[in-house]
Amino acid sequence: MQSPSYFHPSVKRQIVIHVLLDWVSASISWLGLFLYRKNFVEAVKHGYQIPVNSDIKLWIGLLAVPLFWITLYHLQGYYNHIFRRSRLRELESTFLGSLMGVVVLFFALILDDSVSDFRDYYWSASVLFGLHFFSTLLLRLMWTTRTIKHVQSRKWGYPTLIIGNGAKALQLLQEINSAKQSEGFKVLGFVCIEGEANPDLLAICPQLGRGTDLSQLIHELGIEEVILCHEEHQGTEVANIIDTIQNEPVHVKVQPDNYHMVMGMAKMNNILGVMLAEVDFEVMPHWQKAVKRGFDVLASSLALIILSPLFMLIAAAVKWDSKGPVFFRQERLGFRGKSFKIIKFRSMKMDAENGKPQLSHDHDERRTRVGIFLRRSRLDELPQFVNVFLGQMSIVGPRPERAFFADQIADISPIYRRVHRVRPGITSWGQIKYGYAENVEEMVKRMQFDILYLENMSLGLDIKIMIYTVLIMIQGRGK
After folding, report:
1. CB of 247 within 8 A of CB of 282?
2. Domain residue spans in the chain?
3. Is the CB of residue 401 less than 8 Å from the CB of residue 333?
4. Phi, psi (rounded to 5 degrees) for 280
5. pLDDT at 434
6. How far is the CA of 253 from the CAs of 32, 51, 242, 273, in angstroms?
7. How far are the Cα atoms of 156, 182, 245 from residue 153, in angstroms, in the given order?
8. Is CATH 3.90.470.10 what the domain over 158-279 is classified as, yes or no?
9. pLDDT value of position 98
10. Which residue did the predictor score with more confidence, 20 or 214?
């Protein structure tokens, strides 16, 4: 099966253009503030016109300040979904971003200036906000309007797959094709949920497979949009379909009468076009995810440096206690179900599993003497800071499992697949509650706390989990 032709320009190219536009507006606003302060604030203070010369502070500002704004917008998530823009969203995100950035620059740079009247501080902040907000908004609206026109005229679009094979799918496709202005859906075909396809649907749209082929079709065809429109009698299949596609890099939409099927994950953002509810699988605001990742990188770097003497001590103890390597590597499932090699200090004898996946327990004779201590104190987990630094794991997140056990957990509770929405963690809510699971039943119970973590995920909750983990390590209560 061949991939479709390119439906829109390079995402990277569009991001670069947006970054350059934001850089230009940030430079203009900072230069404007510099000129304002020279001609008004400093002139009033000194009693004469201050000449605008080649001030080194100006050049440093023109380099550092735009970089600050670009970083802030990245944390805000502005450069995500670059083709899915609206002018109202541009206004909202630009206002909020400008407000937050000016507050930071006010306390970091403006408040440090020497002035004759304290009100000059607020005038400077107001000038910076006005210049930055309006120049940024103007450039963004110009480029966003161009993008919207290309999408509406069907010049640009997103490879789209319809999930459904009945009258509702037919009606949806007819509405998409007959719309005067496109919403960007380039429908490549549909997949059957169950039963046979509607003949009228087959006449205007190719059938690409069935529900079991979804993941393969998404990757082979470069699908970016998935629209779920099942019939009433096909409702039992919806949960399985959602579980199948929730970890795929696609945008998912459903018809409004299906809203209750994904309650808590859907939002309406369409007024004039085809009425669809967008399914939101994001578990944290983008800025919190960026902060969480930044903390992971910083904390793992410091841990690997500061704990290096402890690493060498544990490595020597493992080597002295039993034959075999110091570190134990094992394949686990991570973010979006991708596999990676987890790293731990070896706590068991060599060839403990004999080729068959097994779980440990409190009286497991395969553990070494040092291994018993390492597992109770959780010190065997320390090398996973390497996985965190590499971006394969997070400090806090659902525990990663082997595919062998993950499949068994998913068979009992299909909701388990939701844990792959985020990076797995060294510690987790479930790990604090249950520790190392001794069987699949305990894995399922621990999974419930991991799902609960996803529904309540926040930086504050991460801090609480880390505190309890440290207490368990100090008290040696690890299972």
Report:
1. no
2. 11-152, 158-279, 286-475
3. yes
4. -105, 110
5. 76
6. 44, 59, 11, 13
7. 8, 6, 29
8. no
9. 95
10. 20
Q: 332, 342 in Cβ contact below 8 A? A: yes
d(CA 308, CA 371): 19
Q: What is the spatial distance between Cα 128 and Cα 218, in angstroms, rounded to a whole number?
A: 46
400 CB-near residues (< 8 Å, 6+ apart): 332, 333, 334, 340, 342, 393, 424
Residue 26 pLDDT greater than 50, yes or no: yes
Q: Residue type for 172, please?
A: L
Q: Measuring CA to CA, which residue among 2, 366, 418, 403 is closest to residue 239? A: 418
CA pseudo-torsion sign 300, 305, 307, 311: positive
Rounded-to-10 torsion of CA 239, 244, 248, 251: -30
Kindly report the number of other CB atoms within 10 A of residue 324's CB atom: 16
Give the residue from 76, 94, 74, 77 showing the smallest Cα distance to 29. 94
Helix (H) / strand (E) containing 462: helix 459-475
What pTM value is reported for the model? 0.72
| Comparison of pLDDT for 318 and 112, the residue scoring more | 318
- For residue 448, give both structure tokens: 């419930």
State how far the Cα of 76 lies from the Cα of 258, in Å rounded to an integer: 30
Quote the radius of gyration of the chain (alpha carbons, Å).
28
Q: What pLDDT does residue 49 have?
A: 64
